[in-house]
């Protein structure tokens, strides 16, 4: 007698024999029991999960001479004919080869005939998604209102390709992938019935390779049995199926995690020399990494049954790596697997993928992450020596004199800003005029007015607007740095990149002249949207009324503006908002004692004193800001480098 393959010999004959589809078999049994059998069913699911076998069992249950019954006898002529495929009442059609409209028209003619043996005539259309659109349309009316003696059972692996008009007329049952545990148990049962020495480890490997299909698992078992009459163990299964051993997998994954490139290359050479395919090699490594990932997430998972004899090694390896590192290596190797399938040189793709995974995600990457985190913590901490220096500078400010306090008490005002500043005539245009014109009596009268009883009766003396000196050439760089800071704060990156390297050539009463090195930068800086941003920044730093003009270095007009720095008086004034500090009380008393001093000179001396008093703390703060910005820029560069490495 000819040998019958295991998947044909052990094809399910009862609902109880269908593995892993209890949710479907029980529902069909209840429909038969309650006499609620529908006229059309759709069985969908992966290959080898029992769709056609269930359809034949259902046909036997409906047409059995003892039925309809939940358990066909498999002994009556009807059951035996259906099992052998000889029944005239059960018509099995392969839609892949009978997919035209003519085939469906022929089917429509045959449904009119009554069954010959049983009560129902059952049409099983396998791979129904292969029918053409015209064939579906021809089947539609018959499927919607078939004769009472006809049942349609459609089977497919791609239900999404079936028109909705067909789906809506069928009861749909979704067959699931069979778990590795259920397949392994079924294989062990069949092996015991066939007197085959099959180990549990070998059965599990076959079940995993079957990918949820019972038919595939039986075919693999048949292949292993045909190799010889000995015991079917893990070594034999791995050898016949072209799989690699666990020792090799542990060695390769450990080399991946610790960046041992020489071990990786030697391991690939050994396996390929044994005749293994590069794609299988990479697939096995990915499957092992999945086991490591699952062990870290759920150590008691049933999917780890294959590692029962090497659980200790798996535990030690999982303890040496982090979950993030496993995820990262898995992502890289999965991308490499896609390249292997399409590459003309798959071995090179495997080696490149392994080396890339080892290079990108080694322990050095974790050390780099720790160093970046430490630098981030330092970036927001000001060194203690700088803080101590700031405190010393703040404590070292000169105290307010007693004479100044007496003047404040006599005037009835509590702050220096309430003492009116000396008025500078608007017609002054030179230093000589401002020094020689005002007489002594004017200064005394001004001060006397500030402390007169009338002023004492008033809570506040209105502050008089004064004219402040034009910035000196030595201050141009400081002013320009402040303007650039404002532009950066306002996120005007394009404007800032254009004018950052410019040089301030001249600052007048309303003019702000900037020298640039290239014609391109000059053209862009003189655009309305660009100079408007700079004018707004100048308004925050110097006050309103300034407008920026840009010139090319070496331009004749630029040279004329630079000459004005030497010709115009150093004290060229412009209208600004009132100075909140006003003239200090010490200066007022000195001017009373010595009437020869001019109020303008007094204001200049006070201005320099106030600038000197606050210059050192401001400088220290500027140093702190620059220090923190440098750290932040350095951190950003390292972070970008780390991201680029990770992407690579």
From TrEMBL:
Enzyme Commission code: 2.7.7.7
Reactions accelerated catalytically: DNA(n) + a 2'-deoxyribonucleoside 5'-triphosphate = DNA(n+1) + diphosphate
Keyword Aminoacyl-tRNA synthetase attributed: no
Keywords (A to Z) from UniProt: ATP-binding, DNA replication, DNA-directed DNA polymerase, Membrane, Metal-binding, Nucleotide-binding, Nucleotidyltransferase, Transferase, Transmembrane, Transmembrane helix, Zinc
Biological process (GO), any one: DNA-templated DNA replication
Keyword Protease: no
A molecular function GO annotation: DNA binding
SMART domains registered for this protein in UniProt: AAA (SM00382)
Alphabetized Gene3D superfamilies for the sequence: 1.10.8.60, 1.20.272.10, P-loop containing nucleotide triphosphate hydrolases
GO cellular component: DNA polymerase III complex
Membrane spanning stretches: 614-631
One Pfam family linked to the record: DNA_pol3_gamma3
Coiled coil ranges: none
Every AAA+ ATPase domain range: 37-185
Family: Belongs to the DnaX/STICHEL family.
Name this protein carries in UniProt: DNA-directed DNA polymerase
Organism expressing this protein natively: Anaeroglobus geminatus F0357
């Amino acid at each position: 007698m000819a040998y019958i393959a295991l998947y044909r010999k052990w094809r399910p004959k009862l609902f109880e024999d269908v593995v892993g589809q209890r949710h479907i078999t029980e529902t069909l049994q209840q429909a038969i029991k309650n006499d609620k059998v529908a006229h059309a069913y759709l069985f969908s699911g992966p290959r080898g999960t029992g769709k056609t076998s269930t359809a034949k069992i259902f046909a036997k249950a409906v047409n059995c001479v003892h039925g309809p019954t939940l358990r066909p006898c498999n002994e009556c002529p009807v059951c035996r004919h259906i099992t052998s495929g000889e029944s005239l009442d059960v018509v099995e059609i392969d839609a892949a080869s009978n997919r035209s409209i003519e085939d469906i028209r022929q089917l429509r003619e045959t449904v009119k005939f009554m069954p010959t043996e049983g009560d129902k005539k059952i049409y099983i259309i396998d791979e129904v998604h292969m029918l053409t659109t015209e064939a579906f349309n021809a089947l539609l009316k018959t499927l919607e209102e078939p004769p009472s003696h006809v049942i349609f059972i459609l089977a497919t692996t791609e239900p999404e390709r079936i028109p909705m008009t067909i789906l809506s007329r069928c009861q749909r049952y979704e067959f699931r992938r069979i778990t590795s545990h259920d397949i392994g148990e079924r294989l062990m049962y069949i092996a015991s019935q066939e007197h085959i020495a099959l180990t549990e480890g070998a059965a599990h490997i076959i079940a995993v390779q079957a990918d949820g299909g019972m038919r595939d698992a039986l075919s693999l078992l048949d292949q292993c049995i045909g190799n010889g009459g000995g015991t079917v163990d893990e070594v034999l299964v791995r050898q016949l199926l072209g799989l690699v051993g666990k020792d090799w997998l542990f060695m390769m994954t450990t080399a991946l995690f610790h960046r041992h490139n020489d071990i990786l290359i030697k391991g690939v050479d050994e396996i390929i020399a044994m005749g293994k395919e590069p794609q299988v090699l990479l697939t096995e490594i990915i499957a092992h990494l999945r086991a490591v990932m699952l062990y870290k997430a759920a150590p008691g998972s049933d999917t780890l049954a294959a590692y029962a004899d090497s659980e200790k090694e798996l535990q030690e390896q999982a303890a040496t790596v982090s979950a993030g590192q496993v995820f990262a290596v898995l992502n890289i190797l999965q991308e490499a697997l896609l390249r292997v399938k399409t590459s003309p040189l798959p071995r090179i793709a495997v080696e490149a993928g392994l080396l890339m995974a080892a290079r990108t995600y080694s322990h050095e990457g974790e050390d780099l992450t720790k160093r970046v985190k430490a630098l981030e913590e330092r970036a927001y901490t000001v060194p203690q020596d700088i803080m101590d220096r700031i405190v010393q500078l703040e404590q070292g400010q000169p105290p307010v004199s007693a004479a100044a306090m007496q003047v404040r008490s006599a005037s009835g005002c509590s702050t220096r800003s309430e003492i009116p500043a000396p008025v500078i005539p608007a017609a002054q245009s030179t230093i000589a005029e401002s020094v020689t014109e005002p007489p002594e009596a004017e200064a005394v009268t001004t001060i006397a007015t500030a402390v007169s009883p009338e002023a004492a009766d008033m809570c506040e003396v209105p502050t008089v607007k004064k004219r402040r000196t034009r910035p000196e050439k030595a201050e141009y760089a400081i002013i320009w740095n402040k303007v650039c800071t404002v532009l950066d704060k306002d996120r005007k990156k394009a404007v800032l990149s254009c004018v950052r390297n410019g040089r301030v050539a001249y600052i007048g009463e309303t003019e702000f002249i900037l020298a640039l090195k290239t014609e391109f930068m000059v053209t862009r800086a003189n655009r309305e949207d660009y100079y408007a941003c700079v004018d707004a920044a100048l308004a925050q730093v110097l006050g309103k009324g300034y407008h920026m003009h840009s010139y090319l270095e070496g331009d004749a007009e630029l040279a004329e503006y630079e000459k004005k720095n030497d010709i115009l008086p150093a004290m060229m004034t412009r209208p600004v908002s009132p100075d909140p500090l006003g003239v200090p009380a010490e200066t007022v008393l000195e001017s009373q004692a010595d009437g020869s001093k001019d109020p303008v000179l007094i204001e200049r001396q006070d201005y320099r004193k106030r600038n000197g008093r606050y210059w050192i703390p401001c400088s220290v703060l500027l140093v702190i800001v620059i220090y923190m910005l440098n750290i932040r820029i350095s951190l950003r560069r390292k972070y970008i480098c780390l991201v680029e490495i990770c992407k690579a």
